[in-house]
UniProtKB/TrEMBL annotation:
GO terms for molecular function: hypoxanthine phosphoribosyltransferase activity; magnesium ion binding; nucleotide binding. This is Hypoxanthine phosphoribosyltransferase. Keywords: Cytoplasm, Glycosyltransferase, Magnesium, Metal-binding, Nucleotide-binding, Purine salvage, Transferase. Its EC number is 2.4.2.8. InterPro entries: HGPRT, Hxn_phspho_trans, PRTase-like, PRTase_dom. One of its GO terms (biological process) is hypoxanthine metabolic process. It comes from Adineta ricciae. Residues 54-210 form the Phosphoribosyltransferase domain.
Length: 240
């Protein structure tokens, strides 16, 4: 343990995502304990639950070190439901661990939960409604950390951040567990903190859904085409 304090200071946790390469097809299903009701719908396990937890612990540590300096007041941790609920819960509890174990610094938090409904407005641009906070003007002069499951096109996050900026919070940081490396379009939003960059597959599990299925799955998995067909919503019914 010689030089341990020096090494600790030099250890800098990445805020940018751990890249899962296109060439990585995931782990075979039969090495994992998976719910029977989804086994036939999945192709592979892309990111096991344990790795998700380890990366969240590292993100919590990085966020704690970055934000306690700037934020002596409460940090409002804003959970974007539904997909963000497990990430939010694990991230907040890991920041709480940092708070409990350190006597030299702290990061007080308060918790908010929102849902975002997006639609195309009459000017054919993306518009959103924020549901869950009755009075958004309470965000005035506050520090915000938006906690999101996945940034795919980035369109929703751009609109959400723009909407929240209207209420003049002092700072807004965004953490997303996943960012998607899109092959067609470029993603238009880069979060301040991200857990993993994933290939352009539809991923499910750990509260991420496909039409409300697969939230009750621990690991981050890639779906089979047959699974996508099986749970497809008819008539273009949009499920958020
Ligand atoms: N999985 C689940 N939800 C999503 C995804 C995804 O890959 N992209 C955007 N929302
Ligand atoms: Mg969803």
């Amino acid at each position: 343990m010689a030089n341990s304090s020096k090494n600790m200071e030099q250890h800098h946790i990445e805020s940018s995502p751990l890249v899962i390469e296109d060439s990585f097809e995931g782990y075979p299903l039969n090495y994992f304990n998976l719910p029977l009701h989804y086994r036939d719908d999945l192709k592979s396990v892309l990111i096991p639950y344990g790795l998700v937890q380890d990366r969240i612990e590292a993100l919590a540590s990085r966020i704690f070190s970055d934000l306690h300096i700037h934020i002596p007041e409460q940090l409002i941790c804003m959970c974007v439901l539904k997909g963000g609920y497990r990430f939010f819960s694990d991230l907040v509890s890991k920041i709480q661990n940092e708070n409990r174990l350190r006597n030299d610094r702290s990061l007080p938090m308060s918790l908010e939960f929102i849902r975002v409904r997006s639609y195309v407005n009459d000017r054919s641009t993306e518009a959103i409604d924020i549901i869950g906070i009755s009075d958004l003007s309470s965000l005035n002069n506050k520090h915000l950390l938006i906690i999101e499951d996945i940034i795919d096109t980035g369109v929703t996050m751009v609109a959400l951040k723009k909407e929240l900026e209207k209420y003049n919070p002092k700072t807004i940081h965004v953490v997303s567990l996943f960012t998607k490396r899109r092959t067609d379009k470029k993603c238009i939003f880069k979060p301040d903190y991200s857990g993993f960059e994933v290939p352009d597959h539809f991923i499910v599990g750990y509260a991420l859904d496909y039409n409300e299925y697969f939230r009750d799955l621990e690991h981050i998995c890639v779906m089979k085409e047959s699974g996508i067909t099986k749970y497809k919503v008819q008539d273009g019914d949009k499920v958020e």
